[in-house]
Amino acid sequence: MRFRLSKLIVSGAASLALAAIPAAAQRAGGNAQQTTYRAPRTADGKADLNGIWQAMNTANWDIRPHAAAQGPDLMLGAQFSVAPGIGVIEGDGEIPYLPAAAAKQKENYANRMKLDPEVKCYLPGVPRATYMPYPFQIVQSQKYIMLVYEYAGGVRTIYMDSNSKPPADSWMGWSNGHWEGDTLVVDVTGLNDQTWFDRAGNFHSDALHVVERYTPRSPDTLMYEATIEDPKTFSRPWKISMPLYRHVEKNAQLLEYKCPEFAEEVLYGSLRKKPLTK
To answer: Residues with Cβ < 8 Å from 98, sequence gap 6 or more?
Structure first.
C-alpha cells in the first residue's frame, strides 16, 4: 500500500512537471522572439561578419535525416562509418526530386566512392562548401566580401556593388550580394553540374540557382539558410538551414589543406604501367 501511494505521488509530481514545461517553454520562446541581437558594425555601418566559421553537423554525409551506417570501405571499420544526422532540409526533410533525378541519385549513391567530387579533391560548390567538416573565413569590405575555405583552398568573391552576370559556369559559381538589415543575402548563379550536395549522391544540374542568407544570431553564431532551385532536377524550390559557429581559439586560423596530391592515385593510378601492389 505504501509503495502504491508513493508511486502515485511520484506519478502526479511528474505530470505536474510535464504540464509546466510547455508554459515555461512558451514564455522562454516569447522572450527569445522579443530579443533581437544586433551585431557589431563595420566602418560603413553594416553587420560585422568577419571571422572563422564552421558548421557542426553531419550534412556532408547526407543533407537528409539519416541513421548511422557502415562506411563504403569495410576495411576501415568504424573510422569511415557514417555518422547519424537529423538533416538540414526544412519541412519533411526530403528533397523534391523529379522521377528521373531520383533514380539518378540512387545510382550516384551506389557509385559514390568513384563519382563523389570530394573523392577527387574537386571544389565542393555551393552550398556544400559551407557545411563540409572544415572551417572557412569571411573577410568583409564595403564592395567585396571574400569567403575563403580551408578545403582545397577554395575562394569565393561576393560582389556587393553590382548585379553582374557570370562569364561562364564554374565550380563555385558567381555571387552577387546585398544587405537586408543585418542579413547578408547572396544570389549564386553560374554553377556547373559537377558538384554534389553531400556524400550520399544528392546532386543538381547546371540550372542550379542558390540564394544564401547569413544572419548574425549571437556574438559567436550565424544562421545560414540556402534556398535551392533547379527546375531540371527538382519539382519545386527547397531550403536548408543550420547554425554556423565562430572559432574562438586564441590562435584560430585557416590551415593549408590542398588535397590534389591525395587524389592522384584515384585520378591517375589506372594509367600506371605497373599498378601499385598492396
So the answer is: 232, 233, 234, 235
Closest CA relative to residue 44, chosen from 125, 160, 200: 160
Q: How far is CA 205 from CA 97, 127, 156, in A?
A: 12, 14, 20
User: pTM for the complete prediction?
Assistant: 0.84
The candidate with the shortest Cα–Cα distance to 199, out of 143, 271, 253, 124, is 124
**Cα separation, 196 vs 22, whole angstroms:** 40
Chain segment 4-23, per-residue pLDDT in tens: 434 433 344 444 344 444 44
Mean pLDDT of 251-260: 95
- CA–CA separation, 42 and 118 (whole Å): 35
Cis ω for the linkage preceding 117 (within 30 of 0): no
Q: Could you report the per-residue pLDDT of 219-236, keeping only the tens digit for each?
A: 999 999 999 999 999 999
